[in-house]
Amino acid sequence: MEIWPNTLCLAALLVACGVAGELQHCVWSENPRNEKFILDESSWELTLEGEWMIGFCVPLIMACIKFERVWSKFAHEKQLEQSDMTVASMKLEYSETVIRRFSLHELPTILHVKNGVFRKLPTGQSIQELHELASFKWQEIDPMPFWQHPNGLLIRAHVRYIQAIDQVYRASWFNADYEHATWLVRIGLILIMGIILTIFCNIYNCLYDRPKPPKCGKKSKKQVEGHSVRKQKGSSSQVSFFYL
Length: 244
Hints:
It is a single-pass membrane protein. Helix 2 (62-81) links the parallel strand 2 and strand 3 (85-90). Helix 5 (153-169) crosses helix 6 (178-208). By secondary structure, the protein is of the alpha/beta class. The chain has helices at 3-30, 62-81, 96-101, 127-135, 153-169, 178-208, 221-243, and strands spanning 37-39, 51-56, 85-90, 109-114, 117-121.
């Protein structure tokens, strides 16, 4: 008889979990594309497709605290509108690669992304300003230059450099500070670049700087001209002797 209360509690808990799961499934099915995203370094490539507005903020800055409240309301209203734009926030804690990848110089910062084209927008202080930026004002702003594009060659090389320093610093065999890890990676890059440059120089010398063999069968221009002059002199002397 003592088993029945425990069984009833367990059944009620299962039913409640099932109802909650169904409600969550309904919310997701009604608006699957406009759930608020939290992006980081491992998932930022999702922004290369579709239309996004990304907010960059850290919770310890007073301006970011105010911005985060407005940004959350803006994201909620965009979800209710069921628009094609996805509103997301980017994690910045302990992530220097995100700061370098998106060329962040101040916080908070807003980026508009459409089909891989990034634009840095002015920070809206109200929901109305954010709606105007999302609707039409983003078209008035020039895209980010190629050397600042998050997926560009220069930015990717810089991010790889930072990731290499982090990997060396966190390696089990490395027992020095972050500055020594930075110098170790720099020295390694210099050595690698020197080796690559040496290989290219050797290949160039082998292909284009081969010694050319002397051409024995052909005479120089001066030798040919001298021979023709001597021949003309000899023929003129023979003609004069014949007339004599």
